[in-house]
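Q: Structure tokens for this one, please.
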Amino acid sequence: MQVRSLLQQLDPSHLAAPHRSLPGAAHRWSEEQLTNQLQVPVLKSREREAAKEKGGLLCDLVLEQDKHHLNSRSPVHVWGYFSDCMESERSQRMGNACIPLKRIAYCLCLLSALLLTEGKKPAKPKCPAVCTCTKDNALCENARSIPRTVPPDVISLSLANNNLQTLPKDIFKGLDSLTNVDLRGNSFNCDCKLKWLVEWLGHTNATVEDIYCEGPPEYKKRKINSLSPKDFDCIITEFAKSQDLPYQSLSIDTFSYMNDEYVVIAQPFTGKCIFLEWDHVEKTFRNYDNITGTSTVVCKPIVIETQLYVIVAQLFGGSHIYKRDSFANKFIKIQDIEILKIRKPNDIETFKIENNWYFVVADSSKAGFTTIYKWNGNGFYSHQSLHAWYRDTDVEYLEIARTPQALRTPHLILSSSSQRPVIYQWNKAIQLFTNQTDIPNMEDVYAVKHFSVKGDVYICLTRFIGDSKVMKWGGSSFQDIQRMPSRGSMVFQPLQINNYQYAILGSDYSFTQVYNWDAEKAKFVKFQELNVQAPRSFTHVSINKRNFLFASSFKGNTQIYKHVIVDLSA
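A: Here is the predicted structure, written as tokens:
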């Protein structure tokens, strides 16, 4: 009756209807519930009268007497307490327009602090229905399901004889008191989903009886307690579609200039070199600039010191060299490439030998010359002509050693539709490429691209008809390593992304095949298929720790893929 009497003094309507300030309190509280919830001490009438005589408010007296009591209550109880208190204040001061704002602010401030700091304590996990628990033990054997929560103070936990193939990664979370775990009698599949258990076994202080793998076959009957996280290969990669560029393309190159990364794409039908930059806000590639020409087949950037030049190879109208004018913020043509030598350019390669910059143009016409150009400080001039009238389709610069003890020296490999690939070696004395040899038994090679693995040099040879090949440099010649069926292929591009070595074999008649290098087999294995129409080049672009694959297409849209790394054990 004490609580009822007090509430009627504050607000007689409180017991007649749900409280208006608490949407969740739609039920009517009984006197016993109110007594248990609030435990409000009864104010003596003389204390209440004394407060009135002093000009104070009832809230002041309530706060002074019950501040320790309120600190122990939940936010809902405190709100009900204060709302009743404030209701009484309003009823007492209806005739006075000057409400003591200081006291009201104090009430509200204290209420806010209590609401922010108070909260219900999380309930202690009960013993799962599938388990039998004592004070220190949890026995969950022959259960139909895995318990998701276990009392945190258990010392011994048994999940034996449940025919489990795996375990949830967080099953032992919060069980810091564990000293014994029994997992025997289960059929664990030792795949990436169980890698966490191997890691946990390595650092836990609990005693775990020996358990064994039932799968996969290579791990069957192996003791899980003796496995290492290194035994699990759980990191996989893939190329995921990221962006489509609405135009056809041939060559794609990337370069660094003024501390930024750029991509340049040759568009044969519009005759443009399109330059892209990375949009750091939208996280996509956007147009930066362009060079307009006619039937453009290659746009090759070369940065000498801090100056950007672009060699633009065209089927018609001649080929040209452009310079980036940083003041005018545009490309300016500075030089024409002699049309008598370069009639039908098909590929361009840039390289540096002894601090001198060069580029070489592979010419595929019947009367043209594959020609090397050298930078002289003001422009590029013709330095050497190679392989006249052989219709070269590709040129590759690489460095190889002729003997195991010798230093690597510059070489060029020219691919031709009329003969086997030809290898030229750099002669330092005369500053020219000489010592012509070829790669035997490899007719009709469209292009040659090289890569290195652990110091060994390999090449990928593309053939439109027949099998493409992977070959390894043996000190004096290239030796066969692997063959890939490649009907309709015009590009077999090796590329390295972080520690992953790939080779991408395009085709005009089927899906593009992506291969991943298997270090144990020292060969490529099939990895992924990409749907690219008539691909002509694949280029790796790295920006802001993101890795992308640009795939040119002669008949469809240029495609951008993102290199994604996935941890299957996560």
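A few notes: Residues 1-29, 34-48, 50-99 have pLDDT under 50 and may be disordered. Residues 157 and 289 are 66 Å apart (CA to CA).
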